[in-house]
Amino acid sequence: MTEQVGLGPGAPVLAADVGGTETKIGVVDESGHIGPPVRVPTPPGDPDTPTAILKTISEAARDLPGFDRVEAVGVALPGVFDEDREVGVWSENLGWRDVDFGSLVREHFRLPAVCAHDVRAAALAELRLGAARGLRDVAVLTVGTGIAAAIFVDGRPHVRGGYAGEIGHVVVDPAGEPCPCGNRGCLEATASAAAIARRYGKASGEAVTGAREVLERARSGDRAAKMIWSSAVDALASGIAHLSAAMAPQAIVVGGGLSEAGEDLFGPLQVGVDARFRLRPTRLSRARLGEDAGVIGAAIGARECAIPSRGREGGPRP
Amino acid sequence: MTEQVGLGPGAPVLAADVGGTETKIGVVDESGHIGPPVRVPTPPGDPDTPTAILKTISEAARDLPGFDRVEAVGVALPGVFDEDREVGVWSENLGWRDVDFGSLVREHFRLPAVCAHDVRAAALAELRLGAARGLRDVAVLTVGTGIAAAIFVDGRPHVRGGYAGEIGHVVVDPAGEPCPCGNRGCLEATASAAAIARRYGKASGEAVTGAREVLERARSGDRAAKMIWSSAVDALASGIAHLSAAMAPQAIVVGGGLSEAGEDLFGPLQVGVDARFRLRPTRLSRARLGEDAGVIGAAIGARECAIPSRGREGGPRP
């Protein structure tokens, strides 16, 4: 976690952030303290994945201090996710379509529960406790394995069936790499942390561990690395400029793995956005809550759906 | 007017749509009938332009049947316009910055009045009476002399200081033509009706009357005309794809002069948008109210600010 945050007093809750490869699970206690989440592998994509994920979460949670007292559950989920119906509309990585996660989670845990999109959960955490604190009109862009924005209008998430903010699937390079959405050269297939590593591997013939290594190679003068890094920053700048012009947000917060590049990303990104949209300055900020933002956002959601009148002294959970 | 519309029973109002070269003025009577607006030249850009515009409107209005009974005034204004403060933030064409039009209009007419952005006024008309009727999440893109979108979220205009929807000022071609915003190769400088005519004139050395003539030449096989038309459609498709991905609107309505090209625009535009964003289908619709949409939208706004308890039998206006 980049910054240590607390949620303040409230119901103890269980929170999980389901990623394409790893699931993070944490318990928030009555004081609002959230310890470092445990990480377990996400079960691979098959028809039973949704149920397997919930089993994985409750098995890992059993060992966490305070689990027996949790009063609500929050789960953040990847892909296209519709919070209004709590339905996982589509996940290419985990292989599901139209899964009613809301009902599954409530049946599994027999507790009040809320399901959210991982990107909007992380964004909610930034809005309440991080880089977007106090703002009402803001876009929080996550650039990690994928690229998506969470958009808040007047403090409320703009969801629209789970499709709002899916700017990662706009084509920026028609001759580019294939994208899980079925298209080619999408922003996500060009500029996500995963795409940067993949594209460099293809261009150089050398496998790298991730975008961080591509950046290090670019810094030491590797031409292919420099070219791929700067084309990724250009593509992101274009996507952000379009978003800024459309929404006129108070700020655009950029998080996810790529944001850890710091000034190597934010310096040229701000220059690129300003060059592409001059009418109104775009305020770019770096996300503050780091990789645990999704768990924190799920915990905030769980806190809000816990039954307020419930005593805090209930016995152990069956 | 492409389609004859009525506003239904209500207060008689005066409505004006101030354009860069021409101002349209109409009176809506108690039955909601709006006749064809009169058109007068907009006074040229100088420090007195705002006052001169109001004089022009009231002089032209004096001859319109029913003017002596109007109970409220609506004025649609170009440039960057902030409805929340009723301030004209910036108009390059008419040379103003930060003009308090709300106060000016109320003082001039001594009536309840509302000032609105021309693009959002036209969009409001499409939302209530035209192509976006019944929709709550919609973008209405006007492609005429300029390019801007009016964005409605949950039925409410998304204004944000007047800057929301200014997608015409995102660069689509860094080597492109200069734009009034100070940048180069903006969507507006590439794909507006005015830009299409200007760019064709420059490429061919032959002056044309407008984008319509460029389209006619493209149809008869003129290479420069075909190239410029299709680059404009591509640029619009890109802007619309970004807007669709960000907002996930129920529809994107396209109006303004260029929309009169009909299928020559909407056919390739839909193909271009779908090629650039496949995750969720983008529903494109053609605006229905034609060039009088701004006046109709201003009249709708005026109707809403008329004092409802006022008698409909008042004497003539001084």
Descriptive notes:
The structure is a homodimer of 318-residue chains. Chain A has 318 residues and is α/β, with parallel strands linked by helices. Chain A is 35% helix and 20% strand. Chain A contains nine helices and 13 strands. A five-stranded mixed beta sheet of chain A has the order 3-2-1-4-8, with helices on both faces. In chain A, β6 (87-91) and β7 (96-100) form a beta hairpin. The A-B interface holds A 80, 137, 149, 151, 153, 158, 160-161, 163-167, 169-171, 174, 181-183, 239, 241-243, 245-249, 275-280 and B 80, 137, 149, 151, 153, 158, 160-161, 163-167, 169-171, 174, 181-183, 239, 241-243, 245-249, 275-280.
What percent of the residues of chain A sit in helical stretches (DSSP H or I)? 25-40%
Tally the helices of chain A: what do you get? 9
Mean pLDDT of chain A: 94
Order of helices and strands of chain A: EEEHEEEEHEHEEEHHHHEHEH
Note the gap between the termini of chain A.
31 Å
In terms of DSSP E residues, the strand content of chain A is 15-25%
Q: Biggest interface in this structure?
A: A-B, 35 and 35 residues
Largest sheet of chain A: 5 strands, mixed
Low-confidence stretches of chain A: 309-318
Net shape of chain A: globular
What structural class do helix, strand and pairing data of chain A support?
alpha/beta
Major β-sheet strand ordering of chain A: 3-2-1-4-8
Computed over alpha carbons, the radius of gyration of chain A is 19 Å
